[in-house]
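If your schedule permits, I should be very grateful for your opinion on a structural question. I would ask you to consider whether the tokens describe a fold that such a sequence might reasonably adopt. Thank you for your consideration; the sequence and its tokens are set out here.
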Amino acid sequence: MRSLSLDEVVIGKFLGVLFLMKTIVNGFSFGVDGLSMEYYLLRCPSAELIVKTAVIQALEADPKLAAGLGSDRSVLIDSTKQNIAEKDSLGNLSLRGFEVIDKAKEQLENVCPEIVSCADILAMAARAVFWAGGPLYDIPNGKMDGKRSKIENIIDLPAPFFNASQLINMFGHCGAHTLGMARCASYKKRLMHGADPDLDSVFAKTLFKTCSAGDTAEQPFDATRNTFDNLYYDALQRKAGVLSTDQTLYASAETKRYVNGYAFNHAGFFFDFQQAMVKIE
């Protein structure tokens, strides 16, 4: 594996903690574009169970996989000679588990041929956070598979050095990490130009030690890399955020109250995460 340059930053997988305040779907009602919580109830009743089983088996073999499962269906499309797809961009190198989606799709085709879209399979699989300790949530199904995936779309991913204002302007709301890791290349600039006032000096030594193994060395976002919980926000309160985009959430008055709220209120964090995941689907 080649080392990443300073400009080739892998920022990890954003897991949709977008601080959303709206509930889009309640119960088993039909939504826009014909999406429904019960879309496969008659079309393919075993769809959810098949995907769930495939994901659980994969997580038992590799618990780190939960952080790498994406929720954007365009990342399933492969590159061609004429086009580099999103899945092969530097910003998506941390995405994994495509074989899990392929396995679930193959099994579903044996039971319900040409019924369940890859888009819905990926959305179901993204709920792997539940088996990593996260909240259980439901999403409307019935999405169609797209045919377009371009690497240029990754320009919409935030750089690891963005501040809170840039993140808010980009998303309207902000995202954060609670599963997974970042590679040294994505945060080592924080260690190169003297003391970072937003970085705890003891934690800085931990980051230095990690980077001594090279640009691809992995640093967990919090103490529970494979568990979905609110310890990420505790880390930010201690100035132990790995990326600048992590720690700036606590440094900025605009987002600090969310960090404090989620660090104190585990259930509140889970609730907002549920609503965020429904929103982005």
